[in-house]
Every structure is written in structure tokens, then in C-alpha cells.
Amino acid sequence: MCNLDTARKSAVEVAAHFRVSNPVASNSGENVYPSTPGVVVREADGQRMMQSMA
Question: Which domain holds residue 15?
Fold first, then answer.
């Protein structure tokens, strides 16, 4: 399995798709390599949120 991910949508577009009300500003690039920042959508207390994670 490849551990390289290519983001073809902006953080705002990802937030809209997953119905995240407050998209996070992320420093992730177009390609996400191991140990580099990427955007993650998660749910906590019934609300979806975006977070930048490595």
C-alpha cells in the first residue's frame, strides 16, 4: 500500500463535503508524505471538525 496521498480539493471543499462548519487553516501541501501535515476530518461530541495532523 502506498503511503503518499494527493489532495485534489481545497480544505474548504473538503469541509463542505463532510459538512464541517468550521474548516481549519492547514499547512498541508498538495502531496502528503509520512510525517508531514495533512487534513483529517473527525467527529467529537456529535460535531465534525477538521484538524491538521502529521
Answer: 5-53
